Each structure stands twice: as C-alpha cells, then as structure tokens.
Amino acid sequence: MNELRSDLSGSPLQCYSMDGSRDCAAVDDGDQLGPRYLAGVLRRRWPGIVVVTALGAVLLTAIALYLPARYTAMAQLEIASPQGFSGERGGFADPRIGQMLVDTHLVRLRTRELLHSVFDEHVRRRGPSVAASVADLNLAFEDFEQRVGVSQMLSSGIIAIRYTSTDAVEAAAVANGIVDRYRATLQDGQNTTLREQVEHLDERVVVLAREMEARQQRLQSMLASDASDVSHELRNLKGMARADAQLMNDLVGRRAEVRKRLEQVSPDLTVVSRASVPSRRSSPHPALFIAPGLLLILVGSCFLAISREQLDQGLRSASDVTSVVDAPCIALVPQVGALTAPERLVARRPFAAYAESMRRIAMALDLGRETKRAEIIMVIASDAADGKTDLAIALSEYLGRAGRRVLLIDLDVRAPAVARLLDLDDSAGVTQVALERLPASSAIQKSEAFRFDVLAMEPAPADPINLAASRGLPAMLQQLRNSYDILVIDGPTALDRAEAATFAALADTVLLTLRWGGTRRLVARNASRHLRGSDQPGITGARRLAAVLIQVPLRRHALYRFVDGIELQARSGRKWITSGVRMSVLHRSALRVGQAAWRSMAGWRARYRGVATPGTPGSGDEAASRPMDAP
Q1: What pLDDT is attached to residue 134?
Q2: For residue 314, what is the DSSP state?
Q3: Do the bridges between strand 3-6 and strand 148-152 make them parallel or antiparallel, or are there none, so unpaired?
Q4: How far apart are CA 187 and CA 192, in angstroms?
Q5: Which residue in 57, 240, 361, 378 is deepest, having the highest Cβ count within 10 Å?
Q6: Of residues 102, 104, 109, the one with CA closest to residue 161
Q7: Bridge partner residues of 545 (DSSP)
Q8: Which of 89, 86, 106, 108 is nearest to 97 (CA)?
Q9: pLDDT band at 579, cuts 50/70/90?
Q10: What is the mean pLDDT of residues 434-460?
C-alpha cells in the first residue's frame, strides 16, 4: 500500500514497495493554485492560448466588418401654449398644464396609427421591390417602431423625434416624415373642429333669423291694431327684438372670427429644427470592441487552459507514476519518430536521451552485473497504444551492445508484433516450443542487424489459456535461462488480456509502460492492481513491478520543470539533434544537406592541400567513420 510521509523539510514523500522492501520518493506537490503553478500552466499551454486568441481576433474582426454603421437623425418640435394659458413671459401660466400638454404630444407621437402611416409612406417611397422583399409587414413594422425614439428634452417644451437606420438619408427622411405627418394630423383635427363650429353657428344664425322675423311680424301686427291692452306685450316684444338683434350680432361676429381662424389655422407647435442628414455614425465603431473582446477572449482562454490542466488525468512525472501505481518509475523514455527504428537509434546514438533511458532501466534493474541465473524482464503495457514492443526491442539492443546475451521473446498472443517490426520469419515460435515440444534452437532467430536473438510468436497461435495453463511455457523459460543472461519478454496488455497477470508471474521483473500524458491515472492504477493479482483470487501476479513512462516529448516535458534527468538533457542545446526526438522531414533534409556540404568542402580542401581527409581511403580512419552497428 502507498503511504504518504514527509521529510525534514516538510516535502511530501510517497512510499512504495517493489519487491518486499520499502522505499520512498518525493512527490511533486503541484496541485495548489499558486502563482508559480498558474505561471507554469500558462507557460505550457501558451500555444493553445495564442491559437484561441488569434481565432477570437479573426472572429471579432469579421463581426466588426460585417456589422453596418447606424445613423440617427433628429427633428425638434416646440409646444406652444394655447390661448388663455400663456404666462406673462410667453410660457405656460401653470407649469403642470404645460407638462400635461407635452405628455399628451409624446403619447400621440408614439401612436401606432401615426407610425403606421409613416411606415406605409416610407415603403411606398422606397419602391415596390423593397415592399415585395418584406415577407412579413408586421415584423418589419415592429422593427421600424423600435427604431423611432420620442423624448422630451430636459424639462422644456421641446420634443425630439429620432430615427435610427443604416442609411443616413433614410434616417433624416423618416424623422422629417414623422414631424410632417403629425403636424398635418393636428392641423386636420383643428380644421375639422373649426368647420364644425362654423356649421353650428350658421345653424344658430338661421334659427335666430327666423325667430326675429316672426317677432317682427308680430310686432307690426300689434302696432297696426289699436288695442289698448297690448301695450305690455308690445314692450316685451320690443325688448326681445333688441336682445335678438344683439345675439345676432354676436353670432355673426363669432362666425366671422371662426372663419378667419379657419383660413389662418396652424397647430399649437412649431418646428424648431428639421432633421438633417447625419454625417457621423450614432453607433459605436466596432473597432472599439476589438480590444475589450480580445482581453475577454484571452482571459477565457487562460481559464480554459487552467481548467484543462486541473481536469487532466494524464501522468507526466515519475512522482505521479509512483503515487498511482505503487511502484517506482525507473525511467522516462523520450518520444521518437514514427519511422525511427528503436534498435538503430540505440546503436547509432548511444549517448542520446533515448539510449540514456535504456541505460537507466538497466541500472535500476541491476542488469549490468553477471549472475548465475538469467533475469526475466517482461514488458507489459497498460493499453494497446503504449508502445511496449518498441521499448522491449530497444532494451534488448542496448543490453546486447553492453555485452549481455539477450533473447527477446514475443509473448503477446493476441497481437504479436516483434517479427513484423524486425522483418523476421514467424512460422515457428513460442507456441510450438512450449506446446509442441519443438526445440528452442530451431525457433530462435539471429541477425547481424541487431545484437540480440528473437523467439517470435506465430500469427495464428493457440488459445492463450492453453499457453498460460501449460507446463511447457515455464519449462521453456527455465531452459532458456541456461543459454542467455537476460530474457526480455514482450508481454500482452494489462487490462484487456485475461492472461496478463498469469504471464506476469513468470517474470522476475515486470515493466509497466505508461504513455506520457496519454495514460489516465485510473487506467494505470487498475493495470497495476491487475498485474499484482489483487483483483483475481488465486493468481499470484507479478513478483516485482516497476513502471516506465514512455513517449515523453522532451520540449513539452521540460516546460513542466520537474527538474529530472530527461529535462536537463532536453535543455542542452545539441541534444535536440542527437536525442532522436521527432524531427520534421525538412529539418532532417537540411541536416543531411549541411553534412554533405561540409564533407565535400573538407574533401576539396584536402585535395587542394594534398592531405587525405578522415574517413577517406588512405587516411587510416576508416574504423572511425564506420557506423557503430556495422559488422
């Protein structure tokens, strides 16, 4: 079981058991959201942050170019005080009455009937094509209504009518159209009222004239008679006649005044200023939003990077691996190119980072010293994409070049890959030797291209349970121990192969390969438990378990600043060329061209001076120029 302790400085320690003994290693306490942690996350994730910010900048620029400019035109109307409500200085005698009149005009200017009439006139003025393109007039009118603004300027009697549009000329035309339509509506209303008053006065004048004529005839008839008893009635008729005459004069004067007002009628408002074509846009320039938008996108991308870092369950350091699998992480293997053969990389660059990782594995497992009993090392992956076969081949090549007798055995029953990668014959292999009693010497293959022997797996082997349950497999391994110093076994994957724990019990040491940043913590923990037999009663499991973190990208790993050996190698300048990390075809071609040019220049100078160049016939340095893996 794992135990967490602390050293004298307070740093956390992870204690594990490898082969029955206890050991402790420092654990990276990097889960705290401190300034150093945040700076490290931003340093590692800066390419993604830059890409997201650049995409956001492009998107914001496209939106800024797509959004049209908006222009607002404004016309102003002043409300005049009606007759009888004016003050001494020309204003309203009562401010409350003036405010009521202004509010009334504000409401009337926002009526849908007025705006709809202006909208219909605007559509007709722009032509039938625009009217035909409006599929839904109600929706278009809703948009038109939202663009109209009517407001009182401060507490004065002036009303501002605004209209906003993407066309400056259209904005001015609509604002002036609302003013003209409203004034015409008020004038029509006043004309109608005055006409009704004139008609009413005409009717009263006619009725009064008839009454006066009837009284006049009555008065004349009474004057013609000599009756003495009509004197009182006569006085009444004369008084009524004088009153009718006075009323007739008033009605005629009132009718003349109303007719004069009808001829000179004007609404109780004046146009202070008509709307002119605006030259400046009323909407803010979209470029003003690019800088704040970029800042928000940058903050969001940083937050996304930190969130991804927190949610990431990948393993990236030896301390992470140790705390998860309860076993020491003995080496970090750099990532190599997809077309790079691991055995050639170890042979050609023995002091590069990749070969150094093989050296670390050999030193950690104490494979350099000679023993009477051969060591069995089984390489098992946590999942199918962990590159265990490349690691087994590279380790075998390194141990072979170190002077050890090494046999590489392919024990991946379901997906054998050793013979395919090394271009060997797979007609005879482990199944025939273990189950059919075929002599191992007739199935083992040797080649001058590498420094180890190979026992392949047939492409169509028997059921794995037959191989796991047979006594022939342990007997075969015991027999091969007498002929070799080290047996390196390319085993199956841990979680999806039922025979993984049984095969692991046959080895002295099991190397569990975990991909840098690709293997999740839960997968690694379950693979470790499965290989130990913790989840399978009756199965012994691995006797000694160690972990190896493979496919480590040197540059990205160096950004985490774990201060381990592979980081120091990654930070040394020349190691980028000699470490065997993935390089593009362009970089490789440029390197080869440069090397060829240098050799040509050196040869030309040597011929010019009459001196043989190193590596040319006659120089005595043929051995120095021969590749290490040449026979």
Answers
A1: 47
A2: B
A3: unpaired
A4: 9
A5: 378
A6: 109
A7: 510
A8: 86
A9: very low
A10: 88
